[in-house]
Fold this protein.
Amino acid sequence: MESDKIEHILEKYFEGETTIAEENQLKEYFSSSNVAQHLEQYKPLFGYFSQVKQQKSTQEIPLQTKKRNVAWLSIAASAVVLLGIGTYFFVSENNAAPVVAAQSELGTYDNPEEALKATQKALALLSNNVNVGIESVQYINEYEQSKNKIFKQ
């Protein structure tokens, strides 16, 4: 009869519905020597609690922690931010002047033959790149045709 009661309490224990008194009953039962044969598998679980309760820690825990010097960290962070802002403005000033000069020279040719050659060169480059794109599309069309043959719709 006691075995049935312990089994019922075990079910409640694994469902998380036991009271502290019922858990103490389980600990006492599994600490004793007369545990039912089919409940032997739970003995190490509850025996562990009684063993750990008897152990005492002798290791000392250091209570002092290292103090970080926050002032130095904030000064270093400020220096990094100022350095970043200074670098941004320095680089942007150096890059701004050549851009204005290059924009005024773009697309102007005094000689019409030079302009024609430059235009033909640009159009040839564009044509080559478009042809490469068209070849890729042809591969996709072949794939679609073969797919439609395999998977008839």
Remarks:
- The radius of gyration is 42 Å.
- The longest helix spans residues 112-150.
- DSSP finds five helices and no strands in the chain.
